[in-house]
Design brief:
This protein is an alpha/beta fold and 430 residues long. The protein has a domain of 201 residues: D-Maltodextrin-Binding Protein, domain 2. 35% of the residues lie in helices and 16% in strands. The chain is built from 16 helices and 17 strands. Strands 3, 4, 5, 9, 15 and 16 form a 6-stranded mixed beta sheet that branches. Strands 12-11-13-10-14 form a 5-stranded mixed beta sheet. It has a two-stranded antiparallel ribbon with strand order 1-17. A hairpin with a 2-residue loop joins strand 7 and strand 8. The longest helix has 17 residues. The radius of gyration is 22 Å and the shape is globular.
């Protein structure tokens, strides 16, 4: 199985280049306007928004662009680039993007490059101070506001309430990976467990990288019993049937199996709060007419969320993350870009485009009714996010051919992990 994933690493050539960049136009700060009214009509901002994409589909994107246009007159267009392409554009000092939306995984590279515009805005500073602590921690550089939090969320194990009643499972029962796999694989009822195997592996590997690797000091050892155990458990029993997509032993793939989001049929699945509209007891993956059922309350009424299982007792928190906005230091429209971000900061839920994915605030009362703040699953996610920590990741894209070869029987477990270690060592020593 060939997968493309983001690891807590960075391509060496990219790191070398990023370290040598000058930091834009001397990182001149953009300041909140003191004028009562500024006419931004006629201004067109370009955003690097992978959600909206190059087609700029109406209703999709990191922000509610239509609402902002109605408020300010500012119009928008979108371009979408992969992380490595985005880094190259930053290195080149391209001015065609006014606002970048970057994951927490890119912030380390952005800071190294100095590719950001310091922001002097009371509106934004007040907004950031109300955000969750782990979002605040990476919003500034050397005491200056540089990044505006735009979204924050967490993935979780999702289990129907009816399955909890049937099995009696508790959070403590599936706190660790081996216990979770035992729960799934020993279940003998009529329900089905669903997962995307590559994503589950990512969740677990992120933990390993965060707690057992030190890339800043070029230290990373994957040839350990713990990592090989994770590798074997997820990929050893993986099957790739002719009529569908495979999954690790004990699971069906959540994109091809029927009833994966049906509370009466599923034992468990994985997901985030933003996928709530996909959860309906009428939904079948094989029926495209009900795949995106909007307005369903099944998710809020019939499901609970549990933290991603820990790989060891050394893991004291999950791996959280978020998306941040930054103003291109080479932009010719910094003031208009700041106005956009100030609107978001002044009324987050009005101007965000991230339906149900913005767990930004510590204060529960700040969430609108659309979040169903009185539901059990809302509080589940709130607690999960409270226990997660945003970390400064290094990122690069890689095809995990070691996994392909392991599954094909071309490599033993030890050989497959050694091959991956070899790739990491090449990066660490260049």
């Amino acid at each position: 199985m060939k997968i493309k994933r983001l690891l807590c690493l960075a391509l060496v050539p990219m790191i070398v280049l990023m370290s040598s960049c000058s930091g834009g136009k001397e990182n001149q700060a953009v300041t909140q306007s003191t004028e009562a009214e500024v006419d931004y009509s006629g201004v067109v901002l370009t955003v690097q928004d992978t959600v909206a994409g190059n087609d700029f589909v109406t209703g999709l994107g990191m922000l509610d662009y239509q609402a902002i246009t109605q408020e300010t007159g500012i119009r928008f267009r979108s371009k979408s680039y992969l992380p490595d392409e985005t880094k190259l554009k930053m290195l080149a000092g391209d001015d065609d993007i006014d606002i970048y939306f970057v994951s927490a995984g890119m912030l380390h590279s952005v800071i190294d490059c100095g590719f950001y515009t310091p922001i002097e805005s009371e509106i934004i500073d007040n907004y950031i101070s109300s955000c969750r602590e782990f979002l605040q921690e990476v919003a500034s550089v050397d005491g200056e506001t540089a990044f505006v939090p735009v979204s924050s969320g967490a993935s979780a194990i999702l289990i129907p309430k009816s399955a909890i009643e049937e099995t009696g499972v508790t959070a403590q029962d599936i706190e660790y990976l081996d216990d979770f796999l035992e729960f799934v694989r020993n279940y003998d009822g009529d329900r089905i467990a669903y997962t995307n195997s590559s994503l589950l592996f990512d969740y677990l590997e992120y933990q390993y990288e965060a707690y057992y690797c030190d890339y800043d000091n070029k230290e990373a050892n994957f040839e350990t019993p713990l990592y090989m155990h994770i590798y074997e458990e997820i990929w050893e029993g993986w099957q790739d049937p002719k009529d569908g997509v495979g999954a690790t032993i004990g699971f069906e793939h959540n994109l091809t199996g029927d009833y994966s989001n049906n509370s009466e049929k599923a034992l468990c699945t994985f997901g985030s709060y933003s996928s709530a509209e996909n959860f309906t007891d009428k939904r079948l993956n094989t029926d495209p007419n009900v795949y995106m059922t909007s307005g369903s309350t099944d998710f809020f009424e019939k499901w609970r969320a549990f933290p991603i299982p820990k790989i060891s007792e050394d893991v004291i928190s999950g791996i959280g993350g978020g998306t941040y906005a930054l103003i291109n230091p080479y932009s010719e429209n910094k003031e208009a870009a700041l106005k956009v971000l100030e609107l978001l900061a002044s009324d987050y839920f009005k101007y965000t485009g991230n339906t149900l994915s913005g767990f930004m605030y510590e204060d529960k009362s700040m969430y609108p009714e659309s979040y169903h703040p009185d539901s059990e699953i809302f509080n589940d996610f709130l607690n999960i996010i409270d226990d997660n920590t945003t970390m400064a990741y290094y990122t690069f894209s890689v095809q995990r051919l070691d996994i392909d070869d392991y599954q094909a029987g071309k490599l033993t477990l030890e050989e497959a992990v050694a091959e991956y270690q070899r790739q990491v060592d090449i990066w660490l020593n260049e």
